[in-house]
Design brief:
With 177 residues, this protein is an alpha+beta fold. Helices cover 32% and strands 18% of the residues. It has a 3-stranded antiparallel β-sheet, with helices on one face.
Length: 177
């Protein structure tokens, strides 16, 4: 998957919504009829993919796979200079294990609708929610390589989190927090 920053995805999404609004004379009301949906898909294509601002690092495979780190990223340069957790993965207890990075997005289920974190306005509110999600995951999952946010839950807002692994295996699939 192409790596885009949280900010870039939000800009792409807003551009798509602005174009869709012009195409069908407004997006007010929240529901699109079949003709409007067809026009948008024909002229603009699918909506931009969501950002993947949460990442999980695990070690091991199958039933032995364990979560070792939870992080968030807002920009594309997060891993450019390396990552402190990567150095810790050279410790003897992790050395012989395979390592995996899962990139994750957040969706909210509200009134029988799904809303992406990328659609939440203003941007600072979305960033605060992202921080709350990361804080909650670290506090409740206690990954051994995280050093902050483990002693108390620093989430500004708490959410019921349903984790789903839609790509591969059963790691962290159907886990509820």
């Amino acid at each position: 998957m192409q790596w885009l920053s949280f900010k870039d995805v939000r800009a792409n999404t807003q551009s798509y919504l602005n174009s869709a609004s012009k195409l069908i004379s407004g997006l007010e009301g929240g529901w699109l009829d079949g003709w409007e949906q067809e026009q948008i898909l024909t002229k603009l294509g699918e909506a931009p993919l969501p950002s993947l601002p949460i990442y999980l690092i695990s070690c091991g495979d199958g039933d032995d796979e364990e979560l070792v780190y939870v992080g968030k990223t807002k920009n594309t340069s997060r891993f450019n200079g390396g990552h402190s957790a990567a150095l810790k993965l050279h410790a003897p207890e992790y050395q012989s294990k395979s390592k995996h990075i899962y990139r994750c997005t957040a969706w909210f289920y509200i009134d029988d609708e799904y809303m992406s974190l990328d659609w939440i306005q203003p941007e600072q509110l979305a960033l605060d929610i992202l921080d709350s999600i990361e804080s909650q995951l670290i506090y409740w999952l206690q990954p051994p390589l995280n050093t902050h946010k483990k002693k108390r839950n620093l989430a500004r807002w708490e959410f019921n989190i349903h984790m789903q692994n839609l790509i591969c295996g059963s790691f962290m699939n159907d886990k509820f927090i």
